[in-house]
Amino acid sequence: MPPLAGGAAGPRALRPLLDAVLDTLATGARDRAGPLPAGGPEAVARAVRDAVGCAIPAEGTGADEALRALVHAVTVGAADPADPHCVAHLHCPPLAVAVAADLAASALNPSLDSWDQAPAASELEARTSRALAALVYPAAPAADALVTTGGTEANQLALLLAREAAAGRPARAPASPTARPADRSAAHAPAYAPGTPGDRTAADPAPAGPAPEHPPADPWPGPYALPRPRRHPDAPRPGPPHPHRPAHGPPALRVVCGENAHHSVVRAAWLLGLPDPVVVATPRGVLDPAAVAAALGQLPDEAPQLIVATAGTTDSGAIDPLPELADVAAAYGARLHVDAAYGGPLLFSDVHAARVRGIERAHTVTLDLHKLGWQPVAAGLLVVPDAVDLAPLGHRADYLSAADDTAAGFPDLLGRSARTTRRPDILKVAVTLRALGRKGLAELIDRTCAAAQHLADLIEATPGLELHSRPTISTVLFRPTGADPPAVARARRRLLAEGRAVLGRAARPDGLWLKATLLNPHIQPSDLEALVKLVEGHRTG
User: Fold this and answer.
1) Which of 34, 147, 159, 460 is 20 to 30 A from 112, comparing alpha carbons?
2) Which residues are paired to 255 by β-bridges?
């Protein structure tokens, strides 16, 4: 019988298997000899196919052989974020201490959907989540946070909470269903704010009705669906439109976000049956508060509103003007959500925390510690200023959270997530916080941001390259001087195919740019100099 990982005998069974894994990780990294495998998708697919053979053999090969064969194949074929030339995405190299803690989480295998499956892990999650929430809301005595799989889930939960708060407003008169448009391409176009740059289609009109009071009443549950989901410029194509609009009920929440917002915001609105978000153009890379106010002013008075701001955009790391947007939200009685998946951890740093000033005025905040927090995937959070704000997520399943058990003092964990089975992702976060402390994390953040500034200096000093703008956090946009979009795309693909560098791409109003997202605090000036020379050598063709 194959041994188990848990119990008193588990560590003894794991030790030789872990030795095999660690040996193979080292061998695979040496064999790859770069940030990613050379040859492109076909070469990698062929290598994996050869290594796997029959995916479900009639007879097994044994644990040692299986681990060595497949871990080697995945390691040789990996894009390694620990390599200083692997800088395409918000994809960090995880800290060794966090990976070690994640091993313990896998071996113990708690599931955080009921206390009797995760007694200590659930308490650790509660305490650590509250501590991280206090980082965002230092003046809020009851701030809390939910652990998520990342920014996408956190943003979806933020819109869900806003929708449920809006659902408590006074009902409006019955409305007739909105016809599905015949032109599907029009149905999937972004709804730009009227009167702002990029306005190509008006926001959906909402049925007229009496204007309710702005403060939301107690939320009541009940999803409702609207037609015509549109596409944000970066969003994947959604599925079929929602088939109907409910005949009556409160006016639907209207989301206003920037063109710079993460695609998950528009997708979350679609998944939740909300109208298409009003997308405000961001020609300068960040939201203009006046344009947001204009967009809100175009919406029907009775429509509850949510502004989504971004603290650390995916393309450039730009941070929207949070204090000014909070003022706009207050003036219009709108909720404010800040997607700080990237920029939120700047709060650990005394040097950089001011960049996200005003974040504490948001109703909800997304954090993602598998970006600028050096955690293995997944390590996201949705933060709120008061635990009461999470009440709409309350749910009852008698086999997990019977009412009499809850009354007897056993915690009800179902309201801590929209998911049921959940692994204790908080363990690696808690271990990292204890091991490094706030000062240790701040040092990593400061070093990483300084490296981005140094890379920008090198690019500015290189005649064959041009810099888009100075980095706000740790993302640097640049390209060969005068290169048109096809040339930039070709240079990036050549570096990928050769296995020499993993650079991202960012489409801006002034063309296509290479993107270096620095998340490796160990990166050295010599690594950055080599990267600049590498790109400079691929500037033609």
Assistant:
1) 159
2) 306
Q: In this predicted model, what pLDDT tens digit does every residue of 442-489 receive, in sequence order?
A: 999 999 999 999 999 999 999 999 999 999 999 999 999 999 999 999
Q: Determine if the pTM surpasses 0.90.
A: no
Residues in the chain: 541
Cα separation, 229 vs 317, whole angstroms:
27
Report yes or no: 337 and 363 within 8 Å, Cβ to Cβ.
yes
Residue 323 CA from chain centroid, whole number: 22
Q: Write out pLDDT tens, residues 145-174.
A: 999 999 999 999 999 999 999 986 433 222
Distance CA 472, CA 400 (A): 45
Cβ neighbours of 132 (radius 10 Å): 24
Are the C-beta atoms of 272 and 249 separated by less than 8 Å? no
Decide if 71 contacts 518 (C-beta within 8 A).
no
Structural domains in the chain, sorted by start: 9-77 (no CATH), 110-172+186-207+224-422 (3.40.640.10), 439-536 (3.90.1150.10)
∠ CA 337-233-511, rounded to 5°: 115
Query: Is the previous residue joined to 5 through a cis bond, with omega within 30 degrees of 0?
Result: no
Residue 248 buriedness (CB in 10 A; 0-12 / 13-18 / 19+): exposed
* Parallel/antiparallel/unpaired status of strands 278-280 and 254-258: parallel
Residues 476, 29, 11, CA angle at the centre, nearest 5°? 115
